[in-house]
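Inputs:
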Amino acid sequence: MSQSSTPQLLRPAQQETTGTGRRVLLTTGSSDAHTWNLVHLQLFLEEHGHSVLNLGPCVPEKLLVDTAQLTRPDLVVFSSVNGHGHLDGLRAAEAMRAEAATRDIPMVIGGLLGISPEGAEERTADLLAAGFDEVHADGTGPAALLGKLATLDTSCPARVAA
Amino acid sequence: MTRAPSATHRAPVTDLGAYVRAAAAAGELVVQPRMGMARPEVMAAGVAAVAGLAERTVATITLDSYTRVGNHAAATAAVRANQPLNGFPIVSHGPRIAAEVAARAGEVPVQVRHGSADPMAIFRTMTAAGLGASEGGPVSYCLPYGRTPLAESIAAWRDSVRLLAEESRTNGVRAHLETFGGCMLGQLCPPSLLIAISALEALFFAQHGIGSVSLSYAQQTHHEQDAEALTALRILADELLPKEVDRHLVLYTYMGVFPRTVPGARLLLSRSAELAVRGGAERLIVKTEQEAHRIPTVEENLIALRGAAAQARRTRAELATEAARAARSERRGLRAVRPDAEEVLMEARALVTAVLSLSDNVGTALQRAFHRGVLDVPYCLHPDNRGATRGVITSDGRLRWAEVGAMPISSSNRTVPLTSARLAAMLRHVADDHDFDAQEAAASSEPAAETASETVVPLVRPAQQPAAEQRPLRIAVIGMGPRGLSVLERLVARAAEQPPRQPVAVHVIDPHDAGAGRIWRQDQSPHFLMNTAAKEVTMFSGDGDGGPARPGAGPSLAEWWAQTEPETADPEGFAPRVVYGRYLSFVFERIMMSLPAGLTVHRVRGQVLTADRLADPAEGVYRLRMSRGDVMNFDRLVLATGHPTNDLDCEQRNRAAFAAAHPPLQYIVGDSANDMPLSHIPAGAAVGVVGMGLTFYDLLAELTLGRGGKFVPSDDGLRYVASGKEPRILPASRGGIPLLTRGANQKGPLFRYSARLFTPARMAAVRERGPVDFHAQVLPWLMAEVNLVLLETRIKVAVNAAEAQAFVTRAVGELGCAELPELARLSELAARYCVDTTLITDLNRLARPFSGMRFGSPEEFRKTLAEWLRADLAEARLGNAEGPLKAAFDVLRDVRQTIRSVVDFGGLCPESHRRFLAEFNPVAALVSTGPPPLRSEQFLALVNAGILDPVGPQARFRTDEEHGCFTICSPQVESSRTRLDVLVDARIPSTDLRVGQDPLLRGLLADGVIRTFVNTWSDHAFNTGGLASTDAPFHPIRADDRIERTMHVIGIPSEHTRWFTQVGSGRPGPWGSFTRDADAIAGALLGTGSAAPAAGDPVSAGNAR
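Outputs:
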């Protein structure tokens, strides 16, 4: 599993979280090579007391599902900026929802999800239908995640399993 | 789709390397887009459009991201379903279609751009289509963009590169590969690592049979640093690559977050074209104005290509003009300023050397290098990258190392905790800067555009209103440290009191934070202290009045500090320099919030390179060229460039060369401790230090406190608890002593000393009589004043204040009416009070307390020095009002302005001026600019701890060829010869325009717009090296002796024409010269001050020759 380990500098300082801290699995599309969004989101979420496992760029659906099964995160954050986010995101959601162990893990997606603004509403509808809990339009700040993290049910079995 | 290659699908191929070489020979930059569309007919139209431009272009076929990651099935499915893709799926379309698309380029070369960690299928399809030019690299297309293990990528690239080389040879084509290593995540990777990876990838290509390569570099955050990087990349490539390998440099327009506005994006693009030409790149890959928002259209790409080519031609023409100017400078004996690629080259070379020492096979060496962290890309999430490094944008806009991990280079930057907000700000830095700059440029050129349109349609111009009045007066304040800020503060305060007659647009220009400038910038050690008490420092020209802080009324440093940082502030003491930096930024921000109608202020981050006189007065007077690449026109210039950086003198050059030839010996020279790579000094090294002034105290603090040491109270002052990381420090000064300790401050910030014997009136009379001999006519009165205070204080302490006053009255009465004061008479008058009547008669004696003494051992000298310093500290603790000695020395500070009134603008005769600067000036600094008592206590503690080891008087530094080191020894101290691992020159460079490195001042000097102040009397002349100027409002004097009324100079550049300009703050209460100078310039600029210097100013205009 050396593929999914994160480098030293950005490895979360602690896996355990305190109080309202949640465990976030941060991922992107299998075709998306961008990482600045991931580095920034990791720092942001950690500053707000959450623990982050960052899968890095070009995450195959299988790696996402396997890691989610293994680590049982409170939330999967899917961030994509290469314009293929709607296609990659659909496959990721379908893969997560197909497995019993990962079916109920909340998922949100955001970023530049299509190569042009046209069809944004349709893309959002497709992604919600595929199983994302929230779809954030391009330009949404990372603070939007905090609301979702705050509403997560603390009695979620995923936390106990960790 | 990837069936056996068939020779029938080949496109006619133009050799990319040869094409670029031919363009370079013709003096033209090759421009190229990034362009990829899914559908063949659309892609073909794009290729044809690019090839059809009049510019020298290379056409591009950029592949989609499914093809990039080898998911050809998904790409094929998307093509069949007519789903959009972000590039051309070359493998899905196959070689026949690829060849047809490429054929539309005609004679123009076509390059396939992809981003794949395993390009085998892509290269197979390409070669089957007859195409031979592509790009990428085993590192640059692996680490940043995916999760393929590095070892796999290196193996895949090795096989793919060999295939490309061989198949192309079979096709009769010379394959060309461009490294992508000059990009690495697009941002925040410092240039040295970019060019090292770029060069290593080129070597990798060459090792696997590629005969034509290009080395990439992506534009980063700083124009000059980028130009240096390109220069270094060229040198590195020539050092590494076999001679027969064809090569050129390719620049990428900024690859990070792009400006959001069209003008901002256009500005960044045109600066990249300028950079390509200035840095010597032969090819440029552009971005478009829409880059931040979406994938651009073909038409948008064409606009970008045309724009870049046009800018490249303009820059080339400007370079020719500059070359002519440089030739003119050379004739005048001035050296042209060239980009100094040394720093980035040394770092990159260290990286490349370390990598290549790991294996003869570049691929293997690269893999080992990343495994060991010898190469380590900042912020890269790839599992095979260590991730222990960090690049940051420093306050001057350069991209530098904050963390170097295990790489064989060092970092001298302090680490500020990385937060998501700071990362976001750094990622947006270039975008924000360009959006801002473009907006500013538009704002300041708007009226000009109106004028232009009115010229076209003259009927609408109102007859009574000439166009010139429409335009604001454009003022450039060059240098935004405390002096520039003082002028701005007075400009805004005056404009608020009385609206300017004409709109005024002020541009404040500095590469560092506005307000603080380089010396007070915020990324410096918290251990560096100011040497003026916080209470005596203000940047507002009036005290706070309860209203909001604004020009003319605001808090002093002490007031502001106590209010904003209550937990840490020590308003009674001396503030760290970073605190003053923050205060200066605060003052600047307050000024920006208080702008009155009719006055605008625009900040420009950058350095001014040249000022050219405009031929057409309607356009302005000067055209300034900025380091960031653009030009702006102005009507008035204020030169406030501050502390100079000078060429090394002969001795310094020899020392630098000796150190360079004898690694690991180090020679460090720089004007401020903050600009010295002190972190390079290893623990335990013997460090010689030339000079024991304020810079010495800074580096002492950084090498001890800055390395984790602590001072704790002990019975006799302080004790130093070492961290073990300290070097051993061996400082030397002419007298063997540090600066005298400043007396504990007992005077309020509003205290102003009123001299009794050394009066302004008396000195005015002295000056009136003609050229003055300082030592004969001025110094006796100054010493009389010093001794008057000495005895007065002794009497006040021993008897009472009334008797002290009686003594003063009698002494002034007796001495005051003589031609010259008789010092002995002071002793006689004081004798009746039964106090010590010894006088200070010889300042030189103070500076050389150990003159003529011999010491049997270094130990003996240290003991004597410690006793001397303890005695000095005891005097200092008595205070600057109650302590007789420190009160007397304080006179030298208090009467500075009276000394200036005699000395400035050619008051002294040449011989006396020379002697004044050589003898009086250093002694005055020694006794009146010293550090606070705390620093002297720390000095003693460090001597006791064995970390500080002052060498002795008249110490000499020599080179030791046998041991490859420097040595230091004092002829007055037996067995004091010591070998040094590091030599630091801690003397602050003095103003001398002839050796200063500021490109603007050099250019103005070469053009004769300014000249140095040559003090001339009958047949004596003394060239001081300072900038010659008039008295207030301080216009420079041209080489032909005319007054340059469109310019003003303030502060350190005019040192020697004036005396003691190294003052970085005003003082609360009545204005001193710091504020008066600024106000005089502000008044002249707004046309509301006293008239320009008229006949009453012959002192400077006439005598200063």
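Remarks. The CA atoms of residues 391 and 401 of chain B lie 5 Å apart. The mean pLDDT of chain B is 89.
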